[in-house]
């Protein structure tokens, strides 16, 4: 898909606040409502806009512990990875799960829980029970320096 400056403006605005009404968005990007809506629909239909979500504040929900886990697997086979990924997908505590290379691990997970006791329960009661998990190294978030859900768009155009 080819993008012009207005498409990029729409994407930037929606990445900051997807709850904007079509009229508010149109005003911000310098269009009238109908063309703006057509462009948003085209971006959705092309798959550029994947979905719209509401971001919740962790601390307001009592989720005070964030852990980053490096997971090592015993075998690098499609069936072993498939079982791991299916299981992890069921765990609401896992915010992100990524298969990686170049590390001394196979997966990087971001896990969000209430406290260390809940983390312990998650680790021993769920994660290490998945067949093939041979190692877990945990790092804990002290402070977020930057959090963003926005993707960079500067490379377009």
From TrEMBL:
Write down the SMART domains for this protein, in alphabetical order: HTH_ASNC (SM00344)
Hydrolase as a keyword?
no
Q: Could you confirm whether the keyword Transcription regulation appears in this record?
A: yes
GO biological process terms held by the UniProt record? regulation of DNA-templated transcription; response to amino acid
Question: Which Pfam families would you find in this protein's record?
Answer: AsnC_trans_reg, HTH_24
Q: What is this protein called?
A: Leucine-responsive regulatory protein
The molecular function terms of the Gene Ontology recorded here are:
sequence-specific DNA binding
- Residue ranges occupied by any HTH asnC-type domain in the UniProt entry: 3-64
Keywords from UniProt, A to Z, are:
DNA-binding, Transcription, Transcription regulation
InterPro entries associated with the record: ArsR-like_HTH (IPR011991), AsnC-type_HTH_dom (IPR000485), Dimeric_a/b-barrel (IPR011008), Tscrpt_reg_AsnC-like (IPR019888), Tscrpt_reg_AsnC/Lrp_C (IPR019887), Tscrpt_reg_HTH_AsnC-type_CS (IPR019885), WH-like_DNA-bd_sf (IPR036388), WH_DNA-bd_sf (IPR036390)
Q: Which GO terms describe its cellular component?
A: cytosol
């Amino acid at each position: 898909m080819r993008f012009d400056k207005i498409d990029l403006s729409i994407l930037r605005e929606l990445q900051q606040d997807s709850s904007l009404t079509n009229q508010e968005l149109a005003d911000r990007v310098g269009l009238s409502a109908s063309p703006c809506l057509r462009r948003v629909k085209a971006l959705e239909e092309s798959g550029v806009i994947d979905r719209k979500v509401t971001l919740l504040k962790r601390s307001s929900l009592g989720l005070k512990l964030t852990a980053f886990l490096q997971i090592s697997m015993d075998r690098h086979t499609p069936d072993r990875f498939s079982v791991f990924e299916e299981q992890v997908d069921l765990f609401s505590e896992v915010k992100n799960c990524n298969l990686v290379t170049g590390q001394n691990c196979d997966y990087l997970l971001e896990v969000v829980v209430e406290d260390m006791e809940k983390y312990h329960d998650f680790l021993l009661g769920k994660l290490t029970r998945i067949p093939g998990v041979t190692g877990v190294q945990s790092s804990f978030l002290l402070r977020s320096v930057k959090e963003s859900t926005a993707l960079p768009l500067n490379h377009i155009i």
